[in-house]
């Protein structure tokens, strides 16, 4: 067992400070433009990083959300929060709490960031290790008002000190208890990188393991044989078991997700990537545990034979693109490198431009699984995004979003959110069907959650994009400028959509969640050269009440990049003198990417 490094020595309460909580509507910002508070609920201006958070209008992405089952008026959310980059030099895990069902929010950061001068922050093992970045946040409640908040932490330069962490908050999320390190790695090409975390707590109505905390994540190996790891806590997050590999027999694995049935059965799914080395196909893999996460069944396929919705292109200059991505990662100005071996998963301008002339963020097919803690102990619900086979056609450019044909032809198609169900504990699964089968728009980043007979789903959707085409990424038009770059779709083109089912997924009521479309391809990363939307959306519900969150660019201030050829509509507000100099006005709205949310029920 790994003993908690931080004990509840210091009392702290994340309280709503008068005047700091900004009102949210049924569709409104979770990350509000107001000063952040410390873990103890007070503003301390001597803290160099948090003193500018909420007012420097920096990016947030990859949101998570969780509704307190003990007190459903309490909703907590998290994200990769870039507000700390300006003063602390790295991104950190944001912690956002609402006590009025998501109408108003108080924003903070997980204690332990580099400039955190609070007793809680100074005692954090992340602070002790000199960690400068923490993100990929996910959250889950137990039935007694304890919140467990999980993510990754690492440095972008040596010493890299990568770690998987879990923080505990009690008193319905108002009081930070401490943080424990679950696993460590080395985020380098020749080492191990922990990524794509998942957490769930056993809230099963008839479970003998109720209260157990389960975590899973990907370990990216330098060898390329990426693994899914698992650990558990049987003492409310005070300690965690030694991590074990649960993806034995499967190579190139990512995007783990956990669901716990009402009887305490633990289920984990993830995506297995197609691999010539492993002679394996793209598939949703599945394991289960009937002894509280102590042991697991062998990994096997739950769903296979689908066509993945993975964006890909070719950089105009592969070496320059790789260097630009690496530099962005090191400078806390973007995700890990997405250009290698002549291919790219995201495209922008300058050294990050691609042959097709499209501008787009990365996205991959991902599975999500859920179970109703009050429902049938054998039923599981699964969603994932994939290409509708009937829409697949050869690509007219170097951009492709569907699997490459056997003869090497690049293919594109329409992305959709698929649903499948098991009523026998995962032994068999129903034939996957789209939740919302429409003729226009790409769907991706799905999530799902079940509780009290209500099944909710959320995803990103470009059905309202006036330039939609299977040949184009979301937010791009077919028209090109004189430099061969495609122009931005008017009005942005991307929305959040959701659905609810009260009959176990037999039918769904679909609704648009965002009241305004946004442009997902604003180039806010890589020195204003490439877009990034994070890697997921999130939904939580307690009975009929649900809250859905997504990354949203509607408040970004557009501009013109003086270094770019032409003006395609993807540039953001920036100031450069000379044109090749640094951006001297990064706090004037050009980076104002936010987390938005919408309630239901």
TrEMBL record:
Domain of life of the native organism: Bacteria
Spans annotated as Disordered: 317-347
UniProt keywords, alphabetically: Signal
Annotated signal sequence range: 1-23
Stored SUPFAM superfamilies: Sialidases
Protein name: Exo-alpha-sialidase
Taxonomic lineage of the native organism: Bacteria, Bacillati, Actinomycetota, Actinomycetes, Pseudonocardiales
């Amino acid at each position: 067992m790994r003993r908690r490094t931080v004990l509840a020595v210091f009392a702290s309460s994340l309280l709503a400070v008068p005047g700091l909580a900004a009102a949210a509507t049924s569709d409104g910002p979770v990350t509000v433009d107001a000063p952040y508070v410390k873990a103890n609920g007070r503003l301390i201006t001597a803290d160099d990083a948090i003193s500018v958070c909420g007012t420097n209008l920096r990016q947030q992405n990859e949101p998570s959300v969780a509704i307190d089952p003990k007190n459903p008026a309490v909703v907590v959310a998290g994200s990769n929060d870039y507000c700390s980059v300006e003063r602390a030099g790295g991104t950190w895990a944001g912690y956002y709490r609402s006590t009025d069902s998501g109408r108003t929010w108080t924003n903070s950061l997980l204690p332990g960031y580099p400039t955190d001068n609070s007793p809680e922050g100074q005692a954090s093992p992340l602070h002790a290790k000199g960690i400068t970045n923490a993100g990929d946040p996910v959250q889950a409640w137990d039935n007694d008002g304890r919140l467990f908040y999980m993510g990754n932490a690492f440095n972008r330069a040596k010493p890299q000190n990568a770690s998987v962490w879990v923080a505990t908050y009690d008193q319905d999320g108002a009081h930070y208890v401490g943080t424990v390190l679950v696993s460590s790695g080395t985020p380098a090409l020749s080492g191990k990188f922990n990524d794509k975390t998942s957490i769930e707590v056993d809230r099963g109505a008839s479970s003998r393991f109720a209260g157990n905390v389960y975590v899973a994540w990907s370990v990216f190996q330098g060898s390329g044989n990426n693994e899914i790891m698992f650990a558990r806590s049987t003492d409310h997050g005070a300690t965690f078991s030694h991590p074990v590999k649960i993806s034995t027999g499967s190579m190139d694995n990512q995007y783990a997700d956990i669901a716990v049935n009402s009887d305490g059965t633990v289920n984990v799914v993830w995506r297995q990537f197609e691999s010539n080395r492993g002679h394996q196909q793209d598939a949703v893999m599945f394991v289960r545990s009937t002894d509280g996460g102590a042991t697991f069944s062998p990994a096997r396929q739950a769903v296979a034979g689908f066509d993945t919705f993975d964006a890909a292109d070719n950089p105009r200059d592969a070496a320059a693109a790789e260097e630009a991505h690496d530099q962005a990662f090191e400078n806390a100005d973007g995700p890990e490198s997405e250009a290698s071996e002549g291919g790219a998963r995201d495209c922008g301008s300058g050294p990050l431009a691609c042959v097709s002339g499209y501008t787009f963020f990365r996205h991959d097919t991902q599975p999500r699984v859920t179970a109703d803690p009050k429902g049938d102990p054998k039923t599981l619900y699964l969603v994932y995004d994939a290409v509708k086979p009937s829409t697949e056609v050869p690509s007219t450019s170097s951009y492709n979003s569907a699997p490459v044909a056997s003869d090497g032809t690049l293919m594109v198609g329409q992305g959709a959110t698929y649903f499948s169900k098991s009523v026998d504990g995962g032994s068999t699964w129903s034939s996957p069907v789209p939740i919302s089968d429409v003729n226009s728009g790409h769907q991706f980043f799905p999530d799902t959650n079940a509780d009290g007979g209500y099944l909710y789903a959320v995803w990103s959707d470009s059905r309202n994009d006036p330039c939609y085409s299977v040949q184009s990424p979301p937010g791009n038009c077919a028209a090109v400028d004189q430099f061969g770059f495609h122009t931005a779709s008017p009005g942005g083109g991307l929305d959040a959509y959701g659905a609810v089912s009260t009959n176990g997924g037999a039918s769904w009521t679909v609704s648009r969640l965002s009241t305004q479309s946004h442009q997902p391809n604003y180039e806010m990363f890589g020195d204003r050269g490439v877009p990034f939307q994070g890697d997921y959306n999130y939904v939580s519900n307690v009975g009929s009440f649900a809250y859905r969150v997504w990354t949203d660019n509607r408040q970004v201030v557009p501009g013109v990049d003086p270094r770019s050829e032409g003006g395609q509509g993807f540039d953001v507000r920036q100031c450069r003198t000379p044109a090749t100099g640094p951006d001297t006005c990064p706090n004037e709205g050009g980076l104002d990417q936010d987390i938005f949310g919408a309630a239901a029920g």
